[in-house]
Fold this sequence. Notes:
The protein has 268 residues and is α/β, with parallel strands linked by helices. It has a single domain (7-254), classed as 3-Layer(aba) Sandwich (Glutaconate Coenzyme A-transferase), CATH 3.40.1080.10. It is built from 6 helices and 18 strands. An 8-stranded mixed β-sheet has the order 3-2-6-11-14-15-16-17, with helices on both faces. Helix 2 (32-43) links the parallel strand 2 (25-28) and strand 3 (49-51). Helix 1 (8-19) packs across helix 2 (32-43). The radius of gyration is 18 Å and the shape is globular. The termini are close together.
Amino acid sequence: MAEIEFTDTEFMICNAARLLEDNKTIFVGWGIPQVVAILAEKLYTPNIVQVFEFGAIGPLSRTPFLRGTMGGPSNTYRSLQWCSMNLAFSYAQAGYIDYGMLGAAQIDRYGNINSTMIGDDYEKPKVRFPGSGGGNEVASYCWKTIIVMAHEKRRFVERCDFITSPGYMIDGKSRDEVGLPAETGPYRVITSMGMFGFDEKTKELKLIGVMKGLTVDEVLDEMNIEPLVAEKVVELEPPTELELKTLREDIDPYGLIISKGRKIKLDI
């Protein structure tokens, strides 16, 4: 029996990359979503079309990944188009973007996410984050939004301190009732401990997978809300040797993203 060592950030990135489909479009957010898209393009979905809010459409990924260079050469190399921000978002509004990928500081049971501030006073928050950027447009208009976030009790809340990007129910109103396109919305939440979907009828958060080596109760204990639990919760495999080699030697050799988080050892 062999042992594999990885960080929970690498676990999130690999599981999110495995979700994407080839020949689809994806609106890529800053940070972890960029690494997810690059890994997917290299190993699983070579024909995926990445879309960036600053206007680059369909660039070829350049490595190594450089943090803080959202609009730099590595994210625009051989783009099919470099348009305005308004036009890039209009593609999502017109239904051309299949996937969106975002991070979140908080999430509630209906998939509303907060990336703006923590606290009950907007003017004097306990913590101020960068805010929406293009997050609201991604969550509003992409067909399927994937949220990638660390699994911490403080992040799963009954009500977000601020709703930056919409989920399925906002103050008792559905997406349809607030004017958002039908059939769009949160699709999966990938965390450092598991994976969630949303119930087809109630649109509530539902646990559908846990990291190999963890139990359902261990995952639920790290949440401030009680989600639905699927009848059959699948076991999520750890990163493969090829995924880790690609991440560590090609995409992020400086460990800007993948070195963060808890280190885990598993027998495989």
